[in-house]
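Sequence, structure tokens passed on for absentees:
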Amino acid sequence: MTSFTGRILCVDLGNGTAESRSVPPEVYEAVLAGKGLEAWYLYKHIPAGADPLGPENILAFAAGALCGTGAFLTGRWTVACKSPLTGGWGDANCGGVFAPAIKQCGYDAIFVSGVSETPVYLFCDGKTAEVRDASAYWGLDATEAENALHADLDPVCRKKPCVACIGTAGEKLSLISGVCNEGGRIAARSGVGAVMGSKRLKAVVLAGARPMPCHDPEAVKALSKELGRKIVKMSLPSGFGGFFGLGGRMMGRMPAMPMDGSLAVYMFREWGTQANTPLAVTSGDGPIKNWGGTPKDARGLPPQYNPDKINKLETLKYHCYSCPIGCGGRLDLRGRRYAAYPETHKPEYETLESFGPLLLNKSLDSVLQINELLNRAGMDTISAGNTVAWAIECYENGLLTKEQTDGLELTWGNTEAILALVRKMVDREGFGDALADGVKRASERYGGKEYAMHIGGQEPGMHDARNDPQLGVHFVAEPAPGKHTVGMGMEYGAMSLCDICSWAPPATLHAKKKDREDTEEMALITKANACYTMLTDGAGGCLYGVMMGVHMWKLVDYLNAAEGWDYDGDHYMEIGERIQTLRQLFNVKQGVDPASFRLPRRMLGWPSLSSGPLKGVTLPQHRAQVSSHWRAFGWDEKTGVPLPETVKRLGIDRLTEVDV
């Protein structure tokens, strides 16, 4: 026995059918489940040139290999498809409790093709899988739709169903929309919500109760107990949040160094990712004023985003499935300014940075409301914030007139205008209609391409490559460009991958400028980071587990115990390499040129900043670093196309012949 169910559900909305299919063991051994299973299936079954918003595109929902085994920090689920935002591989990741619901229905993944003529939802309870009418839920925001489905289905189901659905942004085919669960928690990136909306699939509702398999549950339990004991001991004193701005200034002056990955647990247990906001603003990690500003421009902002202020509004902490940390929370917003909604999820760092320092917006209350507004609509806060920043800079430089912006005075820090513009984007109203498809398309319509921060059509996460050049390589070399969750220098310094992987270089204390150099060591570091991330996504693991390091979150040991295998770290890193190569082959098949992905000149430091921790920093060898990264993967260093010998070495040629 392994942890895999051995089955997938294939749904065709064109004819309303749902068919269970078996998957051979060799597929799981090659790519695990989660993102790996999706990469294998979508590469095989989405034809070249498929319209991302047409019937040939396939929308996949997958749980990771370790979900349901008792392994801590393995409750993530992934949505994948051909992205309408980039035209190539697209995926988005989310927590909550939806991942185990997939496996409790008896499947490792659900693949949805075709287009329904009318709004529908998919219902599965482990015994039947049906495509049902969703006209009563169409037009509702994500939270309203989820609540309505629960009201209708909870009384007639054996167990409370789990719901993943789109909001109005997905219905309106916003190319920066995502898929939501648990009251607006969102798998946000790559335009996956637009694909779901194009299929007129409002929701996936899962109510199965099947047991989830595991080869050696006692061994997995022992690993989780060991990790749990370490996590329980970790805490920080309340009121410490006010020191993060000072800590960021210190970090901005320090060399790059290995870190104890367990330090991340302290922050996430107490505050969640919001603690990173004042830290990022002062250290050079967080972009300011549309990636062109410095801490001087953001003077006064770090205290506004003190995470203790947000914690004072918290009424409930919550955990994802199988998570002992509990970084999530619910906030009470009653009595707060702009309080259109009485409560919201605690915002993530990416949201706070996107609508705070990136726009020079000093109003925390407005960001809390924008967070809830976008969660309910199902719109990506990273993409939306970058797009609003572009609009403000265009307006400031006379490329947009007040008439074009529907009378909005789009100036830096104008909270009322920012909030009004977000509402227009959600509703696809007036000027907001053009912005609802992201910054690339908005700049193609109105101009100001030099202010449009995107890579290959996708807006970057809120971390600056000038501060972390390794991140810059991943922004560009990643098959889903612009994503910040594939690799960073800070993560590599915490993971100790060299202790499980024979070819991964050790993390060292060194001057930050060394990370800007094109060296074989740096190429192996960025390759190792990407391979381990893909392995984690195949397992359904959490990024915070990754940041703890391999000696604390023992992914290799978890996989061996859960699957009954006895593989070493090199073998598992090859699985990650295989998943990443399949995703790159998907792009090549769809006609996407990997060499066309470029960091905007501003993000490369041209021109360089005049003050702050990034003063004078440029990334002169960035393209060479990307080429070296490709070469380390066995891809053509000029084109990024995987070489035939690499495809053969990884067994992808044989794997793609396996039929399901």
Remarks:
- The chain is about 40% helix and 10% strand.
- The two ends are 21 Å apart (CA to CA).
- Residues 569-589 form the longest helix (21 residues).
- The mean pLDDT is 95.
